[in-house]
Amino acid sequence: MLPFYDTNAKLRYIKFCLLLFTFLFVLTGIALIIIGSTINAIYYEFIFFLRVDYITPATCLVIIGFFIFAVACVGLYGTLKSEALVIGAFGGLLGLVCVLQLGAGVACHFLTGHLVHNLRVTMNETVWIYPYNEYAAERMDAVQENLACCGMYSPKDWHQVYNGTEIPRSCCAIDDENAMCEYIHNTGCYARLAPILKDTSRMLTTSSAVLAFMQLTGMAFAFYMAQCLRQQMRLRRDRKMMVTEQLLYSDADGTKSPI
């Protein structure tokens, strides 16, 4: 009888831990959605200067975040109902999410260099076609106004484009159409935007590693609880068989008693 009660007590402890982890797993999903959406929101303002293909890791994190909610529901159901099969499936799904998440983080880490390179090339082209391409001019103006910068490396870039005759009004430090542009931003836009890309990539990679560690921990809890549930089921079955045998022997002894 002691092994049964020992397993039962251990199972209650594991069940509590897994319920707590499932709640943390939901928070993980929210964190992934927020992180991925934040990175996409940052990139959206400067999408003209970037390749859309390189933003997919952040989008992948958003998709994984939503997928986590479904996985968390599976884990919650399996834990509350003490279903060994469902909890085992929950552990397997945690492993799948962990692999997808780490893949997104690693992909973003290795693609950051290409992303910064494309930013440099595209921004240089945009500066030169600024006088002739209205859409490119709008995008460059938006970057210069939002990031308080001017040109690619410095305001001198516009001197080459306009032969020193003028400079875009978006470079003005004081945005007043009726005022003279006496003060301009001295920092180049590449120096402003490149660190943003590197920082967001670092944030994505770091968060992926931390959250993956949490998921691996939850996967270990899930598999261990599934094992304890199967062990408990075996003990219950053995206990039931033992009680049945005792009843049968008791009945047999009763029939053989003297009249």
Automatic annotation (TrEMBL):
SUPFAM superfamilies: Tetraspanin (SSF48652). Keywords: Disulfide bond, Membrane, Transmembrane, Transmembrane helix. It is found in: Membrane. Its main location: membrane. It is a multi-pass membrane protein. Coiled coil: none annotated. Pfam families: Tetraspanin. The chain crosses the membrane at residues 16-42, 54-77, 84-112, 209-229. GO terms for cellular component: plasma membrane. Disulfide bonds join 149-189, 150-171. It comes from the Eukaryota. Belongs to the tetraspanin (TM4SF) family. PANTHER family: TETRASPANIN. This is Tetraspanin. It comes from Lygus hesperus (Western plant bug). The gene is CD63_3.
